[in-house]
From TrEMBL:
Keyword set, alphabetical order: DNA-binding, Transcription, Transcription regulation
Keyword Transcription: yes
Cross-referenced InterPro entries: HTH_LacI, Lambda_DNA-bd_dom_sf, Peripla_BP/Lac1_sug-bd_dom, Peripla_BP_I
Gene3D superfamilies: 3.40.50.2300, lambda repressor-like DNA-binding domains
Pfam families: LacI, Peripla_BP_1
Presence of keyword Magnesium: no
The protein's name: LacI family transcriptional regulator
Domain HTH lacI-type: 2-56
PROSITE patterns from the UniProt entry: HTH_LACI_1 (PS00356), HTH_LACI_2 (PS50932)
Entry-linked SUPFAM superfamilies: lambda repressor-like DNA-binding domains, Periplasmic binding protein-like I
């Protein structure tokens, strides 16, 4: 099997020079680089990248921990990461967890075993303090606000973003406002922030008359609309949905049951997803793709930094 010593001998250069050419080191004389590259092509040599990475202490690969790889929210976030990673010649490895804390820690172990140079945590199952212990093995960026100095973070001020959404509905004259969230507030900071934003905006508790949890899809949106309109509870005149997918499900139920939008029911979605653009759903755009780009930029910077992404409300026909 061809090795770099044979290449060096045939090209008339040192082993160090061959190694520098293979690792794209800039300080190699052009004539020597050309001779080495010619021999590599002639001998059809393919370097052992695992060994090279081990020797360099760098893989040029970043891991991205996410709960699902088939959800539009995370697809947009990953798209932003991929765009920046491409410019920096990094490979991206997706590490889905389905919010399993054990699986998440297994993925974090990739830092210790040097399979990746760093990890971006888009959404987590473990406490940040438990994730913090892995920062001794490599760089970790989280996509949430934190004061912990071990992490760089790219984040959205979700509380004020959600509050702006509720305030808009209030300003437009809606009084009986319901809303949906994703995961339980016990494990989801996002859900906790949305409930707090509702309660501080309207001065009343979120309960089973105005809140439905675990909604993150079109099917969930239909379930939510049936929940709010199918029982003996007061019917809402506006629903602030978890995201545009959930909002689309609410619209589908409304059309099938003679509920006019926005005359009988206003709908505010979130994330500015393609389905929301097609259905003309008013939405709170958290600029997720920019969040992903910023997260990678923070990974690629040696300093610990906190970067906030600004949100934007886009008014469309459902208000």
């Amino acid at each position: 099997m061809t090795n770099i010593r044979e290449i060096a001998k045939r090209a008339g250069v040192s082993v160090t020079t061959v190694s520098r050419v293979l690792n794209e080191h800039p300080y190699v004389a052009s004539d020597k680089r050309e001779r080495v590259e010619a021999v590599i092509r002639e001998m059809d040599y393919t370097p052992n990248r695992s060994a090279t990475n081990l020797a360099r202490g760098k893989t040029n690969t970043i891991g991205v921990i996410l709960p699902y790889n088939d959800h539009p929210w995370f697809a947009k976030l990953v798209s932003g990461i991929l765009e920046e990673a491409f410019h920096k010649r990094y490979s991206v490895t997706l590490l889905p967890t389905n919010y399993d804390p054990v699986m998440e820690k297994k993925h974090l172990m990739r830092l210790k075993t040097k399979q990746v140079d760093g990890i971006i945590v888009t959404s987590r199952a473990n406490k940040l303090k438990d994730i913090e212990e892995f920062t001794e093995f490599g760089r970790i960026v989280v996509c949430e606000e934190t004061n912990l100095t071990a992490f760089s973070s790219a984040y959205i001020d979700r509380f004020h973003a959600y509050q702006d959404g509720f305030r808009l509905l209030l300003q437009k004259g809606y009084k009986n406002i319901a809303f949906t969230t994703g995961r339980s507030e016990v494990i989801s900071p996002s859900t906790r922030n949305k409930i707090r934003a509702f309660e501080e905006t309207f001065g009343r508790k979120a309960d089973n008359t105005n809140l439905l949890r675990d909604c993150a899809s079109v099917a969930d949106g239909m379930k939510a609309a049936k929940y709010f309109f199918g029982g003996d509870r007061p019917r809402p005149d506006a629903i602030y949905a978890t995201d545009d997918e959930t909002a689309a499900g609410i619209i589908k139920y409304a059309k099938e049951n003679g509920i006019r939008i926005p005359e009988d029911l206003a709908i505010l979605g979130q994330e500015n997803l393609p389905i929301g653009q097609v259905l003309d759903i008013a939405t709170l755009d958290l600029h997720i793709e920019k969040l992903g780009k910023t997260a990678f930029t923070l990974f690629d910077n040696p300093d610990i930094q906190k970067k906030q992404i600004q949100h934007e409300i886009i008014e469309r026909k459902t208000l």
